[in-house]
Specification:
Structural class: alpha/beta
Subunit structure: Associates with the 50S ribosomal subunit.
CATH architecture of the largest domain: 3-Layer(aba) Sandwich
Strand order of the largest sheet: 2-3-1-4-5-6
CATH class of the largest domain: Alpha Beta
Order of helices and strands: EHEEHEHEHEHEHEEHEHEHEHHEEHE
CATH superfamily of the largest domain: P-loop containing nucleotide triphosphate hydrolases
Strand content: 15-25%
Distance between the termini: 30 Å
GO molecular function, one term: hydrolase activity
Protein name: GTPase Der
Largest sheet: 6 strands, mixed
InterPro entries: G_ENGA, GTP-bd, GTPase_Der, KH_dom-like, KH_dom-like_a/b, P-loop_NTPase, Small_GTP-bd
Shape: elongated
Family: Belongs to the TRAFAC class TrmE-Era-EngA-EngB-Septin-like GTPase superfamily. EngA (Der) GTPase family.
Length: 453
């Protein structure tokens, strides 16, 4: 049975944590009293909120006593619960307003990795309005007005919890894959390019043997050939492929089959090396191949072959670099290396770059780190307000790796301009260490729990 996402309820004593716990689990499991400090140990229960299922943890009131005292040990239990949770509900008493202890708890929560929702409890009537407004100063997203005693604000709580619960469910689905080290297996490295770029010669030089037939004739290689090899003790699966010409020039049935086999090899690979002939420079077909690799979500490296016989290397390199940045604007800064399959120049650097690129392609960012970056990115460049209606971006999560894929939750995200999506994707690459690997961003709006009623 899949593990339920976990929600921890935290706050200072007597703000209504146990009342909220009982409300969510639908039973009076936790003792409730006007006296502070009734709850000491963590209490857990299965909760359901308008069809949303999760595990909820009731914690002791957060106090600042010495760690060796009973309140200090209770605080340690609370801290452990928050660290293990997928999201924390930070309760304040909206009628009492924000207290110094609330501010201290907020500072502690901001320093952690667990996403936080501020719940302004006891907000029924007008008496709690000022406290809800004060809660904005705690430094989190918009506080949710709520009444645990009367059950008011359940739909708003559902809306706030939904992206976190969905994100935790996505991550749970990925756990089976993530538990295995994604870099433990052999590096699946495909060599692609136009005919006669030197792909088979490159593979032979890696292997230090004439494993592949080579020659001046274009199109010698027809099938994608997979070869297991080791580079300095690390396993590599080299895949030599048939040259890819522009579709309009492909008339022979066998060449069409070879091209389809090459595209299948790209799907199988983790990292793809697009080999260019430095004596011919970058051509339109090279950009089409590169775009195809990126569309498939593979990590891409550009290698300029025959560098030992290239004319005016500095100008050539700069020209290729500029043309790539302009022709593949969706992934600027692709690794560009110079090699010679004939002499072996630059091949060690190429393999090292392939391992580094796979590491970036397989990288997962913690939810806390991702959302700290996300909050700053939105603060520096808020989304537009088409028609005067604000687009509200709530939460960003990494749904999977290989390629890195992210889900952005918010309202009216269908109206988010493509330029803003590119702004976020480029920032993720630049600031979070993904480099030039393809990054996918999916937009998702919260479901309306009453939409079908």
């Amino acid at each position: 049975m899949a593990k339920l996402p976990t929600v921890a309820i935290v706050g200072r004593p007597n703000v209504g944590k146990s009342t909220l716990f009982n409300r969510l689990v639908g039973k009076k499991l936790a003792l409730v009293d006007d006296r502070p400090g009734v709850t000491r140990d963590r209490r857990e229960g299965d909760a359901t909120l308008i069809g949303l299922e999760f595990r909820v943890i009731d914690t002791a009131g957060f106090e600042t006593d010495d760690p060796q005292t009973l309140p200090g040990r209770m605080r340690a239990q609370t801290e452990a619960a928050v660290i293990q949770a997928d999201v924390a509900l930070f309760l304040i008493d909206s009628r009492a307003g924000v207290t110094p202890l609330d501010e201290e708890i907020a500072q502690w929560l901001r320093n952690g990795d667990t996403p936080v929702i501020v719940l302004a409890n006891k907000a029924e009537g007008r008496a709690g309005e000022s406290g809800v407004i004060e809660a904005f100063a705690l430094g989190f997203a918009e506080p949710v007005p709520f009444s645990a005693e009367h059950g008011e604000g359940l739909a708003d709580l559902f809306d706030a919890l939904l992206p976190h619960i969905e994100a935790a469910t996505i991550e749970e689905d990925e756990d089976e894959f993530d538990e295995a080290d994604p870099e433990a297996g052999p590096l699946k490295l495909a060599i692609v390019g136009r005919p006669n770029a030197g792909k088979s010669t490159l593979v032979n030089k890696f292997l230090n043997e004439e494993r592949m037939i080579t020659g001046p004739e274009a199109g010698i290689t027809r099938d994608s050939i997979s070869i297991d090899w080791e580079h300095k003790g690390r396993a590599v699966r080299l895949i030599d492929t048939a040259g890819l010409r522009r579709k309009a020039k492909v008339e022979d049935k066998l060449e069409r089959l070879s091209a389809a086999d090459t595209r299948h090899a790209i799907d199988f690979a983790e990292v793809v090396v697009l080999l260019l002939d430095a004596t011919r420079g970058l051509e339109a077909q090279d950009l089409r191949i590169a775009d195809q690799v990126l569309q498939e979500g593979r990590a891409l490296i550009i290698a300029l072959n025959k560098w030992d016989v290239a004319d005016n290397p500095p100008a050539l390199f700069q020209g290729v670099r500029t043309a790539l940045d302009e022709g593949l604007a969706q992934v600027k800064g692709l690794p560009v290396l110079t090699v010679s399959a004939f002499t072996g120049r630059g091949l060690d650097q190429l393999i090292e770059a392939a391992f580094e690129t796979r590491a970036a392609w397989s990288k997962r960012v913690t939810t806390g780190q991702l959302n700290r970056w996300f909050e700053k990115a939105v603060e520096l460049n808020p989304p537009p307000a088409p028609g005067g209606k604000r687009i509200k971006l709530r939460y960003l999560t990494q749904a999977r790796v290989r390629p890195p894929s992210f889900v952005l939750f918010g309202t009216r995200v269908d109206q988010l301009p493509e330029s803003y999506r590119r702004y976020l994707v480029n920032g993720i690459r630049r600031d979070l260490g993904f480099g030039a690997v393809p990054v996918r961003l999916t937009l998702r709006a919260p479901k309306n729990p009453f939409g079908d009623k």
